[in-house]
Design brief:
Layout (H helix, E strand, L loop, with lengths): L11 H4 L3 H7 L4 E6 L2 E13 L27 E6 L3 E7 L8 E11 L1 H7 L13 H7 L19 E4 L9 E4 L14 E4 L19
Antiparallel strand pairs: 1-2, 1-6, 2-5, 2-8, 3-4, 4-5, 7-8
């Protein structure tokens, strides 16, 4: 177990900023998932920003739907979506309210509750792989659509909350293209990660899925 430097929940005003400010500032923060079996804490090491109406890669680029409704605020809430018919991915909504933007949580280091995360990630070869990628992160933390819309800014014992932790110095932050994003959104260097961190997932460019004959 690694000591958490600051267990103060991040305030809503932290998220009520442009997404390109929030995303790199989330590195080093602590995500706590409380489950009936016990808590799991994760230090964020990799994220991606999605900027709603300005971003062809965003789920909210074409407007509000039942699926992306949480992205429109209020800030500091959790947006969970289902992808490829098998995986969940988790985002943190940014402000201002009414303008959809969110940060995809791509990877992190499990610093508390690793024994519980291992029961959900049996294929992980070591603890560095427990949350190495957005679907693996959600699986390790037992995140699904039932948590969509959860307020992550509360101090109570809620299912998900984000703590201050220890923000990463700017000199250790790297950025580049987002993983698997196609079209006009592929050019945005809006993936942020901690340099030389072994929990960061490998970059993969978008590859079109072929239809089966």
């Amino acid at each position: 177990m690694i000591a958490i430097p600051d267990r103060t929940p991040l305030p809503r005003k932290f998220f009520d900023r442009p997404v390109l400010e929030v995303a790199p500032d989330l590195l080093g923060r602590i995500l706590v998932r409380t489950t009936p079996d016990g808590p799991i804490a994760l230090r964020l090491s990799e994220v991606e920003a999605y900027d709603g109406p300005n971003d062809p890669g965003s789920h909210a680029y074409r407007g509000r739907t039942a699926r992306n409704d949480v992205m429109f605020g209020p800030p500091g809430h959790v947006y969970v979506y289902f992808t490829y018919g098998m995986w969940f991915c988790m985002n943190l909504v940014c402000g201002p309210e009414g303008r959809a933007s969110a940060v995809l949580l791509r990877a992190g280091e499990i610093i508390e509750g690793a024994e519980l995360a291992r029961t959900r990630r049996l294929s992980a070869r070591n603890d560095k792989e427990l949350a190495k990628g957005p679907a693996r992160l959600a699986t390790a933390l037992d995140v699904d659509r039932a948590l969509n819309g959860t307020d992550a800014c509360t101090a109570d014992d809620t299912p998900l909350r984000v703590l201050t932790g220890a923000p990463v110095p700017s000199g250790q932050v790297r950025n580049g293209p987002r993983t698997g994003v196609s079209g006009d959104g592929a050019v945005h260097p809006w993936r942020f990660w901690v340099a030389d961190d072994p929990t960061v997932s490998p970059y993969r460019a978008h590859v079109p899925r072929r239809r089966r004959g």
